User: Fold these one by one.
Assistant:
Number 1:
Amino acid sequence: MATQRILDFLATRRPEGPCLVVDLDIVENNFHAFRKALPDSAIFYAVKANPAPEVLRLLASLGSNFDCASVAEIEMALEAGATARRISYGNTIKKERDIERAAALGVSLFAVDCVEEVEKVARAAPGARVFCRVLTNGEGAEWPLSRKFGCVPAMAIDVLVEAARLGLVATGISFHVGSQQTDTNAWDAAIGDAKFVFEALAEKGIVLTLVNMGGGFPTRYLKDVPAAEAYGRAIFESLRRHFGNRLPETIIEPGRGMVGDAGVIKAEVVLVSRKSATDENRWVYLDIGKFGGLAETMDEAIRYPIVTARDGDLMEPCVLAGPTCDSADVLYEKKPYPLPITLTIGDEVLIEGTGAYTTTYASVAFNGFEPLRAYVI
Amino acid sequence: MATQRILDFLATRRPEGPCLVVDLDIVENNFHAFRKALPDSAIFYAVKANPAPEVLRLLASLGSNFDCASVAEIEMALEAGATARRISYGNTIKKERDIERAAALGVSLFAVDCVEEVEKVARAAPGARVFCRVLTNGEGAEWPLSRKFGCVPAMAIDVLVEAARLGLVATGISFHVGSQQTDTNAWDAAIGDAKFVFEALAEKGIVLTLVNMGGGFPTRYLKDVPAAEAYGRAIFESLRRHFGNRLPETIIEPGRGMVGDAGVIKAEVVLVSRKSATDENRWVYLDIGKFGGLAETMDEAIRYPIVTARDGDLMEPCVLAGPTCDSADVLYEKKPYPLPITLTIGDEVLIEGTGAYTTTYASVAFNGFEPLRAYVI
């Protein structure tokens, strides 16, 4: 929801063009909610969700750790005040020279999901700690989870054995249950897989200590989602069930769940029209679309709440589209979006829950439109 | 195909990281081919395909006109040496204040597809020329064409009548047969629709003069495509058939067809791995993906030719993915891509036919990766 601070900012500053406004108070609340929900887990904020310096500085000051996808993100986290010990290079796809750069910056925790990546880390960051990502099925997640990251648990055993053999510290297992995961039990099967790998390695004399439980914590879009406490409870119970009294260290990597509901995009209605006299749906065109920051509407995956000043009026399903000359730049068409029948050209709309995966997804200059501006307040 | 000039540039300069190299000689050849194929049509280059200043300057010097999607693109075309008379504001979705800005820059030709847009143009650019876009079905096009732009021909009549009533010059009809259109006859039905609207308006005393036949001209990816001459012949015959001896002025708006085959992306293999010991396909990860400039691999729509130094070796279908921590950043998976079985980490690959719709589609900084760099030679 748009907070009063965001509404006041927009009313006072009246920025021209589409923009994102992020309320740091919400980010801080979310951080505390995660800490309370999973008090024994270290929080590694997924920088890719929103790398605004103000967000990173706030989280660094609150004691957050950082999950980074690239050397540039590592540098941003350091710049924001994190120490290298608080940074994980969580991308399983790294150039060897980037591993070397990260190691030179002091980073010593790396994600891997195959022997080939282990070999790179062993050469470029000798003695570093590595965790191996295992595949999960992503059921219950709204953003599609592919098989891109991770290997099957049986292969994770070989990967970590090889890591140990090459002088790395085989630290543990990671997984990701899929972004915008609304099933609090989604973590359970993967925690079971982690335990399986822990036992298999223990038999080989390698003691794992870490379970990186990834992200996936949802933000509220149109439907209610379980609160952080519900996830905390389900995850803790699952850890207890699988690991008994010998609980491993754990990490969580919230991104969307940390910043999603802290941001609101202000946009403008550029055109409202029909394609024929008998057209069933009106077309509503905004000054932001798939290439301007709303990439997560791809396949209509994420459905953002949209607020207008006319929401008391009669609603009618509309096709919603962006402003570029690209026919793929349509946000919601298969499932049209209900908007007030009185909505008109020039109206302002607020697109809520847009604090994550918007600014950096925006294209450089597609159709000459500048990237999404952001104000962090 | 990578030209010798591009290969020499890469061999000499050895740029670090993924980059696009565009050979201006090819752009010039393409311009001449279009001019020869459709000698009576004015060429309006679709700036959005690749707005590199060098490309725009070359085309301006060759006498090209420019189809612009935004005020920023209009400014780029002017900067490159085009006069305002040679610019069309071809986006049917415009803010009124942007129409005003364009008019202030001297632009006097605007696209519309509804009465609402006509009203904006009448207020913000009194007396301007407008053409109305009509819907086509996009059959035969490889990049999805939605119903986003245009109205049915019957509605186009009302739109242009209203334009005339509001003091605008109702100039003609435009349409787009869909990007990467491989059927040379795809223009025919739309030219017939244009003729229908011409006649209907003539009965009302409004004489249309222009048919804007849009873009859609393909570039060669993996499959051969008809040459510009074949399109020229089919289009000219269709114009003759529908308009007889009273041929209208015509415009074409090539974008992909002008620059697509002039560009090659140099990328690097970051990782080659399998997900399990029995995995059927290897996964090949590049340092460029869907968010770094290859957005047109969305739904595996555009299938680029990929060249490696090992192409003589045995080939095997691979899943091809990008370098970001986003599970949606997979290029080809439903239909795996054949690559040499010897392809290995650190190898360079050339992704051909990438001169259009790559650089400006690239995200600002997703996962901390910088946008695609481009060299125009």
Number 2:
Amino acid sequence: MADEKIEKIPYSLNSKAVADATKYWLNKRGVTLEEIAELVIFLQQKYYPNLTMDECIHNVEMVLSKREVQNAVLTGIQLDVMAEEGKLFSPLQDMIENDEGLYGVDEILAFSIVNVYGSIGFTNYGYVDKLKPGVLQRLNDKTTGQIHTYLDDIVGAVAAAASSRIAHRKQAEREIELDLPHTPEDREEAARKLAEYDETPE
Amino acid sequence: MADEKIEKIPYSLNSKAVADATKYWLNKRGVTLEEIAELVIFLQQKYYPNLTMDECIHNVEMVLSKREVQNAVLTGIQLDVMAEEGKLFSPLQDMIENDEGLYGVDEILAFSIVNVYGSIGFTNYGYVDKLKPGVLQRLNDKTTGQIHTYLDDIVGAVAAAASSRIAHRKQAEREIELDLPHTPEDREEAARKLAEYDETPE
Amino acid sequence: MADEKIEKIPYSLNSKAVADATKYWLNKRGVTLEEIAELVIFLQQKYYPNLTMDECIHNVEMVLSKREVQNAVLTGIQLDVMAEEGKLFSPLQDMIENDEGLYGVDEILAFSIVNVYGSIGFTNYGYVDKLKPGVLQRLNDKTTGQIHTYLDDIVGAVAAAASSRIAHRKQAEREIELDLPHTPEDREEAARKLAEYDETPE
Amino acid sequence: MADEKIEKIPYSLNSKAVADATKYWLNKRGVTLEEIAELVIFLQQKYYPNLTMDECIHNVEMVLSKREVQNAVLTGIQLDVMAEEGKLFSPLQDMIENDEGLYGVDEILAFSIVNVYGSIGFTNYGYVDKLKPGVLQRLNDKTTGQIHTYLDDIVGAVAAAASSRIAHRKQAEREIELDLPHTPEDREEAARKLAEYDETPE
């Protein structure tokens, strides 16, 4: 983070470019929103049996719309790509190429993603990262020549964050249904959801 | 976090009760929203000279509307109150009562607050926690008999989180003003703000 | 954390008192070092089939000798005890008593424990916290009247941290065995270990 | 972090290579241990007026001997170097090149460094990162063509971690001097120190 106020070249961050690059790179590295949503289903079906794929995809999209998440996704994929091209300096190249057990920066980036929806997602992240269901198994296949040391953890973290987001929203929906007093923040989306308002673009 | 689905006593979290308790306890412990907003002004005026108190208060309120923040505020104040009443077991009582330098759980809770708006707030938190301007100086006065070992850090963290929130919103406003393409998430509030829509209840 | 240098009452932290209280309270709340060590075996046997209980107990002890860990253990158990006695203010009492899913301060404290040995332990923590093997199942039994909302997460975190510590030490032992150049930090304990030096008091 | 046990190419992490690369790259990017030690003096002189440069350098070295710290240092410098060479993909290139205010992955890596010695270092990190004394001012000079978006935060974090380490050691020394009961962990180094044992290689 910079404090400087004057820059030589007029630099201006375009938030849409950051968001678009996030989607582009996830896709280019072979990960679809549907696959991440399936991890969410895997994690949450036990608690919310009626959870739909559409709902999960929406929540994954909302997680991916956060700048903090976009920064982590882009940085992690960049390091994976560089490692795949053999362009990192030694021994960082070896550590990322071999998904070294004592190298934990990938988990640190993953945690910054989970954290966006709070600590309740820590457990879910650890769980899918250990079990490696669905897309995570493919990303961990070391025979392909592809390197997904970061992406593997990032995808699990996005799914965990989306699960946390769902837990918060479900509580809001429940309170509205029961006509309980509730806090305004969660209310808006929950209300829209109950009214089956089309929220796709949000 | 619990996974159980059946409970002896029908327990149901009321999110409004949690939000109301947060406001109540901050107030009861002598901290006003205005004082937290002044810390935000202190931190952000350099970057946004036109920042108003109303804007800062609004952002502090938005931070305090987050469940993760409410949990940290309530837990920290509870420990302060217990320490003030001498009800903690030894040596925890001594450590919290004396704001022991090697005891850092207060900072851990503070960080869970800052984190809600991402890592860009870490620096601001450390800065006010060290300088102790405004309300933080009063909370650190050890001659009053009051114990604010947690509250001190919590208030700085809420101000830092509000500063991060402002940085994100200002970017969104700038993009809308410049008619740049922008991401939907930040857009809603920014648009309302530019239209001087009354957002008080949100 | 305090910066003040003069205090009314001559307060002096005794690190041994903090360490002793940590052991005392773990024991009083019904958790033995052996039970935590069994979680470590559960997590690490796959990677180190020859791992012994003694080795795991030693590593658990080393984790528990860290001040940061002691602070988290004592603070968490204190909140559990207060909740069990019904002494917290509402709605914090209800949230901790019922191990509320949207309350995540217990996980935040757990993470400060895991973090002491770095991010490589995040996954192990999440995994045992989800599966709840051994002692974690007992701590999660909601029919006993006891409240272990914090302790449950803390015990899993200590086991995950001990697992990370083992991973670091095993690497050091391997390098010494292979007569590789190695860094001094891990060397001392590894050398002692290979020489079957009695390291119990350390 | 990887769980796989069989790898195509016999890869074996050499911890000394990682440690050496850390020193090499810090040096190559123009940062000396003395400069980091000066930040430690800046942060700690108020509390320990007799603190020597040698002591600070030793503590900086100890921080840099931790694998977690080495991983963060190497990863951050790698990203700085790539950005300096213009080799990152857009818009990550722009964000790191311009030390974008809404990009916080540099702070996330910095925090993983501070965390190694616990939460008591958070405040010190934020403080130097904001004030930018000594070497931090030079690293923030945007007119040189060099990019130190990560290194800037990393150096501040190493100084903050060294400060935390000193706080822990000073407590141990004090307890030994007062012949108080103390915990074994901190005892060894403190005892050596008091005996003016040459601890340089450790």
